[in-house]
Structure formats: structure tokens, C-alpha cells
Amino acid sequence: MHVLKQNIKLTVDAVVFGYENGKVYLLLINRKYEPFKNQWALPGGYVKDDENLEEAVARELKEESGVEINFLEQLYTFGAVDRDPRGRVVSISYYGLVRPDKFQISAATDAKDVKWFPLNEIPQVSFDHERIIESGIIRLRSKIKYEPIGFELLDAKFPFSDLEKLYSALLGEPVDRRNFRKKIKELNVLDELDDTLSTGPGRPARLFKFNKKRFFQLKKEGVHFEL
Amino acid sequence: MHVLKQNIKLTVDAVVFGYENGKVYLLLINRKYEPFKNQWALPGGYVKDDENLEEAVARELKEESGVEINFLEQLYTFGAVDRDPRGRVVSISYYGLVRPDKFQISAATDAKDVKWFPLNEIPQVSFDHERIIESGIIRLRSKIKYEPIGFELLDAKFPFSDLEKLYSALLGEPVDRRNFRKKIKELNVLDELDDTLSTGPGRPARLFKFNKKRFFQLKKEGVHFEL
DNA sequence: TCAAAAGTGTTCTGGATACACCCATGT
DNA sequence: ACATGGGTGTATCCAGAACACTTTTGA
Hints:
The first copy, chain A, is an alpha+beta fold and about 230 residues long.
């Protein structure tokens, strides 16, 4: 069929998770304009004619919230005819994971406010964003079970317990410490350092850092890691 | 950001697999118009303003090839700026599985020819369709390992060996007959009939049919079935 | 009687899970 | 001394993988 007058707008939306101090957060913006003015929504916006989809999400995210992120993975494309009151809008959603403390979030352009919401305190959101968020959570949780993502979320040197907390927070359930250490150690992506870290009472923790080479190699090979 | 003049076209593409007599095929059309005139490509086309994405794929597929299908699952959205010589075109791809013998395929609209290609004899294809096809194959194979799809592809009554052949064809590798029967039987989705089927020499095969209720219930629960 | 396809159980192994006590430090 | 968090090993269980012979028919 030849080109018809197509009047469909294309947007991207970002489900950005943040991890800090054992808690997982979701980034939302408060909309400055109609529709859904003054309501919370995912950061996102129109794709420009000359930018790739990934560039579009990264740009919108940066513009609206100040968050810069390189790991963004495509989630799903939502395109129901009535999902946006402005007309036909198809949205390609992405998700990613960052450290909130690395960014000074600040609302701009379409957003009049930005905020990190703890995963269990997510407010009502606009459009069909609730569904998008839900698929983001499901995907994130299933992903970390077989791919060691999320290592970027820790300090350069970190105690093992930080990694454990990260995983249990992302999964939303406790992990067995001994089994977890066993599995991670088998991956051989951690270098044990001589440093230790002491925070208050308790035995000081051995510090580790990532062996990035091995880590990225594993990622390429598509590790099967089954938490 | 308010609505800018966005000039992006939206298309859908279908990666349709066919299964017949122990072989897996892929449906391609031969393009009637530029670009890539006279070359093979995935069936697909522009989304209309007032139809959902799934409707659009189903419609295009029907129009161009004559194939009707209800199970189509979203695969991925391809949107690189230079993927289509006509300009910016973002394509949402879907994949599905049908029985070729159920359809009289016939080219129309954009297609001047349609054909089922055996999976190992896929010709060069237009655009970035090779990548799309590849993701379709990967997805199909990983999917049937944990979800009992593909049952629609057999006759109402069928010998167990048909199911086995189907799976080994889809996976592209042989499956162990005893282990396979064991696992499928545990799912409890097959009703054993009194009929048998005899085709040439060899012991006649017991016929089975699906217990659809149980089958759809399992599907809902998200069976973990691990072939 | 032979060729062809259907049917059927057991063993082995490896990974996942469950589980509890000692160690080093700060107060 | 005690409270706090760090660190470690073993036993069990289950699911997946491997594997070969008997049965029933057509020719």
C-alpha cells in the first residue's frame, strides 16, 4: 500500500529505576501541561525525525529530569488507539537502572517536578503508564536473575553485603547469603581487595571491585547465572 | 515539549512461521513497488490512524498474503533513522505461528508474490528484515521451551509423535522421546483417545487431543515447563 | 520374518535450596 | 560483655539428561 496520510505521533517513555541504600525507587515527573496536567507520569516525549529511539529516550530523560543514563533497554511498544487523549500516540517504552545519588534531579521542559518514588509508594500515574511501569518491574526482576546487571549501581569498592542488599531489594525478597556468595564467586567477576571497610560495630567487611573485562566478556557470552 | 512537526511513519511487520510435515517455514512476500522492488521482505505495512497495532499486522498480513492469524506476539520495535530509504520509518514487529495448509496464500496489494521458505533457505531480504527475522527465530525457540504454544498447529486428533516432531522442528534439534512424553504428560493437557492411527508399517499410534480448558488455564498461570 | 514406527522406566548427575555457627570489631 | 554485621560448609532434594529394549503392525 502506498503512503497514506498517516497521523500518528511517536513517543518514547522511560521506566527508570534507582537504587540507593537498600531501596528501589522509580523516577516520575509531574506534568506541566495538559493532558494530565499536574499529574505524575513517566518521563518521555516525542521522537525527533533525525534521532534514534534510544537517543530520544536518553534526551527526553535528561531534559525533563536531569538524569543521564546509558543502559536503557527496550521494553514494549504500547499503541492502543485510545491511550492518549490528544489523539493517536504510540509509545515505545524503555527501562533502565541508575544510582539516584549520582544525579541532581531537576524538572524542566514538560515537567514541573521530578521525584523518586519508593516502589511501594507509587502514586497514580497518567495515560497507561501504570501498565508500562508494571512491565518494567517484571522485566527488571526476571532480568537480574540471569544477567549480572546492576553492578554499575555500587561504588567502585564495595562490601559483598552491598551487592546482596542490591539484589534482595531489586527482587523484593531476601536472598540467602551463603548461596548468593557462592554463585557470584563462581562467576569470577569480583576481585577481592585487601582493604576492609568498617562501619560501626560488627566485623569489618572485605572490599571487592569488579573485574570489568571478565564482566563484559561474560555479558557478551550471555551468561546463564540463575539466581 | 509541545507537539512539533513530526514526520515519522509507523509500520508493522510480521514474522510468520509455518509448520507442516516436520518442517518450519517462514512467510515472505515479494515487493511490488519501490524501494526494494522485486525483492523478498516480511509482510507488513503502514498502521492506520484508527486501528490498534495488532489489528494492523493482522490486516496487512491478510491483505498481502492471505494468511489469517490470531496469535501474534510483539517482538521488538526497530527504529534506526536510516533503516528505510524512504525516510524515517519505525517498525513494530510481531511474530506468530500458523499451519500453512490452512491457507491458500495469494499475493495482493503491495505484494506481487508470496512464498513459504524453509528456515534454512531464507533468501536475502529487504530493509533490516534479516535482523527482525533473526530475533523472531530466537524468540520463538526460547518461547516454546517454557510455554506450550504450538498446539494449535496440529490436527484435532494427533499421534504423540506429531507433537514430538513439531517440537524438534521448531527447536531445530532432536528431542528425547521418553523425556518429552514424560514432561508433556505431566502437564495434563492431553486427553488420550481410544482411536488409533495407522500409517503404513509400524505399530499404530494412540491418538490424543488437547484438553483446551486445562490448556488455557495453564497458559494463564504462566506454566513453567522447561523443555 | 523383517522393517518401521510406537511405547515405556530407571539411573545418574548437577545445580538449587535449606540451614547454623564462629569471627572481628565498636561500644 | 554484648550487640552488630561479616564470613563460611554441608546435606538434601529434585529436575534434567542419558540411555535400550519390547510391542504392534504392514509388507
